[in-house]
Amino acid sequence: MNIIIVGCGKVGTCILSSLLEEGHEIVAVDSSPNVIGEIANTFDCMCVCGSGTDCDVLEEAGVNRAELLVAATGSDELNMLTCYLAKGMGVSNTVARIRNPEYNHRNLEFLRQQLDISLVINPDRLAALELYQILELPAATKVESFANRGFLMMELPLREESQLCGEPLMELRKRFKRNFLLCAVRRGEAAMIPDGSFVPQPGDRIVLAAEPSELQKLLRTLGLMKRQIKNVMLLGASRTAYYLAQRLLKDGVSVKIIEKDHARCQTFSELLPKATVIHGDGAQQEMLLEEGIGSMDAFVGLTGMDEENILMSYFAGRVGVGKTIAKVNRSQLDSIAASIGLDCVISSRIISSSLLTRYARALHNSRGSQMETLYRLLDGKVEALEFVVRPDFAKLDVPLKEMRLKKGILIAAIIRGGKTIIPTGDDCISGDDHVVVVATGHALKDLSNILA
User: Fold this and answer.
1) The whole model's pTM is what?
2) Proportion of the chain above pLDDT 90, given as a percent
3) Nearest CA to 7 among 97, 73, 88, 94?
4) 137 with 209: CB under 8 angstroms?
5) Which of 156, 123, 124, 160 lies closest to 141 in space, CA to CA?
6) Mean pLDDT over all residues of the chain?
7) What's the CA gap between 157 and 344, in Å, rounded?
8) Which of 274, 336, 268, 263 is nearest to 306 (CA)?
9) Which segments of 66-168 does DSSP mark as H helices, in order?
10) What is the pLDDT of residue 49?
11) Mapped to the 3 state alphabet, what secondary structure does 317-350 carry?
12) Which residues contact 275 (CB under 8 A, 6 or more apart)?
């Protein structure tokens, strides 16, 4: 597919890299000569220096041949205008990055329709949703939901004392008598879909999948169901902090926000009157101690500095905070975070690139299914996808044991009429089912792609 990406900052570059890996033809557009020079030296794609709101620049980028344009500059208004111009010049599908909280749902939907924008992405809101889901299940390092939260997957590091270690999976299912699936494992640098004879070991990172109620029962049985989070400290009055605080306050969670910029403190005090907003430098340990960091259930580092988020989250863990999370946008720092014991790191750029990857694949799909969601798990080594089955799927009502699936493919769940089925060989896929597939080594565009 021919794709134009306008704006090559952190998010735009991550989207560009992800779509290049998918095999798309990319043209990068940015108004900064330095940025364009760096992109040209790093990636195998055509580059154009200029503004996405300049019709001549769009023509040079091949707008008349493009099937998709993604506007990801730092300006919401420029992104919307770029999409509007591109649509008028013949691009079928446009995606705009829009971050400002002032564009609430009603206004945003009106603008999207009037400007004929195909998809709007808000990386900060997406990151806040992922953080909220993790805080709901504090034992997890990552939580993803399918079929309107009817089915969940959670990443979990296995400790020495874990009851999941040392026994084959087939025995664990019998012993715990819960309807769950251990659907993916990362051991060292290798990721795999385990079979019934696989024996989990300390140090593994696993993905557990089940209905929300079953997952909570399993965690309780394993002694991993930590107490519900009631007090959260957020470092940095960022957009992500705003969206996350909104959700937490609505649930009755006490939220304290530390921010060193006085003007942002005033803004947050007005936008979030139920939150406690403290003006101060959250990089000062004494300040955090004075504000009661030790009594918090969770700490989330959300400043614009990755290093500060990592170090302060580490400090929070050392003073007894049960759940610490750092927002990190530079992938080079992920290994540093892991080396000091931070196993919960999120990145809005990776979340956004996964969404764009799904959207681009969905534009290509269409043999018997429609892709609803795509998540990357275990540092991108595993994908989990949700498909809605159409009546023309080739293997409708055929028992799974009679299907020949490609290696590295697992059908993790079938959601039918709101009920989740962890499938066995005797189960079948029917029209309108939601089917959740876990894959390693495959870029699935359609449910039919799982068949050998």
Assistant:
1) 0.86
2) 58
3) 73
4) no
5) 156
6) 90
7) 10
8) 336
9) 76-88, 105-115, 123-136
10) 96
11) HHCCCCEEEEECCCHHHHHHHHHCCCCCEECHHH
12) 245, 249, 255, 256, 257, 268, 269
Q: Which two tokens stand for residue 403?
A: 């299907």
Asked if the model's pLDDT at residue 368 lies above 70, the reply is: no
Contacts of 189 (CB under 8 A, 6+ apart): none
Q: What distance in Å separates the CA atoms of residue 304 and residue 146, rounded to the nearest whole number?
A: 30
pLDDT score of 224 = 80
User: In this predicted structure, what is the pLDDT of residue 240?
Assistant: 94
Kindly give, in sequence order, each residue whose CB lies less than 8 Å from that of residue 393, ignoring residues fewer than 6 positions away: 367, 368, 369, 429, 431, 447, 448
Does residue 177 surpass a pLDDT of 80? no
Q: Residue 398 is encoded by which pair of tokens?
A: 């055929």
Confidence of residue 269 (pLDDT cuts 50, 70, 90): very high
The amino acid sitting at 438 is V
Beta bridge partners of 96: 71, 120
Under 8 Å between Cβ of 110 and 116: no
What DSSP state is assigned to residue 144?
E
| 10-42 pLDDT tens trace | 889 999 999 998 889 999 999 999 999 999 999
Q: Tell me if 95 sits within 8 A of 359, measured CB to CB.
A: yes
CA gap 89, 65 in Å, rounded: 10
Over residues 401-413, the pLDDT tens digits come to: 999 999 999 999 9
**Phi and psi for 432 in degrees, rounded to 5?**
75, 0
More confident residue, 243 or 103: 243
H-type alpha helices, 177-322: 212-221, 239-250, 262-271, 285-290, 306-318
Quick one: which of 93, 87, 84 has its CA closest to 2?
93
Concatenated DSSP letters for 368-418? SEEEEEEEEETTTTEEEEEEEEPTT-TTTT-BGGGS-BPTTEEEEEEEETT
What per-residue confidence (pLDDT) applies to 391?
A: 85
Q: How far apart are CA 307 and CA 304, in angstroms?
A: 9
**What is the helix (H) or strand (E) element at residue 262, kind and residue range?**
helix 262-271
Task: Please say whether the beta carbons of 371 and 446 come within 8 A.
Answer: yes
